[in-house]
Design a protein that fits this description.
- The protein has 14 helices and 13 strands.
- By secondary structure, the chain is of the alpha/beta class.
- A seven-stranded mixed β-sheet has the order 2-8-7-6-5-3-4, sandwiched between helices.
- The structure holds pyridoxal-5'-phosphate.
């Protein structure tokens, strides 16, 4: 950092000192590692908590090592739904019995989209936007090919996202399913989910929301908004660890008619009867196919406990303060160097990350990582700054943007 940044660091430290969530940062592993001065990618892979290290260790030595196969009877069989209910209460705004943990987001998108289409026979179109996350687009392209359906694309604004206005021209009485991300992985745009759900239902279609970039960062009210189906990651803001399983939400009123296409024994009614023929289990359990990854869902419980303790309103307040501060520094230090802001500037329309564009970002990303400043690069020329509310300090934002400035001026 150059000397002119010092007053900036003083200000960053003052913001940390008055941040009511600042002390929670010490609950994470690696925050005092001097080789990482700014971790700005908590939206791609959240940091582990210290509690998770203990929980995983004790799971291996006591639960797995001690209970052995008995663990399935005692706890593990129900664990995907037990943790799903905790997640639903802490972060989804959903009543119990509608959420389960398992698979990956990609696989759950497939299962839920196929299940939704089965609920709208005779309708032939799926609506999705061009700037939705690649896996969402690919899964839907595959399903459309498989079932002979048509994808109706929303040509969304890369710097913004999808609005109800965008739906007016593509949603019709042919629409079976609308699939959108709640927070855009690129721009950070925050969808008006309640309005979109209302509009989708007026057309008689089903709404499937991807919550990967919102869960644990933006308060969700799935039950109140009327969302039909949802999926999301647990390794981003929920700090479940690399490749930790995803979650699925199926609204209670749809569960009796919802059947997903990967029929496995673990989602069958009374699986240990080993009976002939598939009968979906009652309730949310029918989303499960094979044996769920119990080890994979251990760590996310610690972040859910933190969210339960502080509440999503406090998490969102910190998240807004972090992105507002980052944008303020971008305007002051980077706009004069030709950087452009690719995210909504109104915090009410923005999730927990921002993206900034410059033709040289691809060339500098490796040097930033080598200097311990870790955002991620999103083609063609975006640097995405993900500010995980429980583990990111204002000082990290200040140091990170200062180093980006240095690299652009070198
Ligand atoms: C991260 C992310 C995914 C990832 O899906 P995986 O199956 O876990 O690889 C999907 N959708 C969105 C919107 C994401 O941000």
């Amino acid at each position: 950092m150059t000397t002119s940044s010092s007053p900036m660091l003083v200000r960053a430290d003052a913001l940390d000192a008055s941040d009511p969530l600042h002390a929670y940062r010490d609950l994470f592993i690696g925050v005092d590692d001097p080789s990482v001065s700014a971790y700005l990618d908590g939206n791609s892979l959240g940091r582990p908590t210290k509690a998770s290290a203990e929980r995983i260790n004790s799971f291996v030595t006591q639960a797995w090592g001690g209970r052995l196969i008995r663990g399935w009877n005692e706890e593990w069989y129900e664990l995907p739904i037990t943790i799903g209910d905790i997640l639903a209460a802490a972060a989804l705004g959903a009543a119990a019995g509608q959420t389960t943990i398992g698979d990956s987001t990609t696989v759950l998108l497939y299962k839920l989209a196929r299940g939704a289409l089965q609920m709208r026979p005779g309708r032939s179109e799926i609506v999705v936007d061009r700037d939705n996350f690649p896996t969402d687009r690919y899964v839907l392209e595959s399903i459309a090919g498989e079932l002979g359906l048509t994808l109706r694309w929303i040509e969304s604004d890369r710097r913004g996202g999808v609005s109800v206005d965008d739906l007016l021209t593509v949603v019709s009485d042919r629409t079976a399913l609308v699939v959108l991300s709640h927070v855009s992985y690129r721009s950070g745009h925050l969808l008006d989910a309640a309005a979109v759900a209302r509009f989708t239902h007026e057309a008689g279609a089903i709404l499937l929301l991807d919550l990967c970039h919102s869960v644990g960062s933006v308060p969700l009210e799935l039950d109140t908004w009327g969302v039909d189906l949802a999926v999301g990651c647990t390794y981003k803001y929920l700090n479940g660890g690399p490749g930790s399983p995803a979650f699925a939400y199926v609204r209670t009123e749809h569960q009796h008619e919802f059947v997903q296409p990967i029929w496995g024994w673990m989602g069958r009614d009374n699986p240990f009867a080993m009976a002939q023929g598939y009968e979906p289990a009652p309730g949310i359990r029918r989303v499960i196919s094979g044996t769920p990854s119990i080890l994979g869902m251990i760590a996310l419980q610690d972040t859910l406990a933190l969210i339960e303790e502080v509440g999503m309103a406090a998490v969102r307040a910190k998240s807004i303060a972090l992105t507002e501060y980052a944008l303020e520094l971008v305007r002051e230090l980077l706009i004069p160097l030709g950087v452009e802001i690719g995210s909504p500037e109104d915090s009410a329309e923005r999730g927990g990350h921002i993206i900034i564009d410059h033709p040289r970002f691809e060339a500098v990303i490796e040097r930033l990582w080598n200097r311990g400043v870790i955002p991620d690069f999103r083609a063609p020329q975006g640097l995405r700054l993900g500010l995980s509310p429980l583990s990111t300090s204002f000082r990290e934002v200040c140091v990170g943007i200062g180093v980006i400035r240095d690299e652009l001026t070198d």
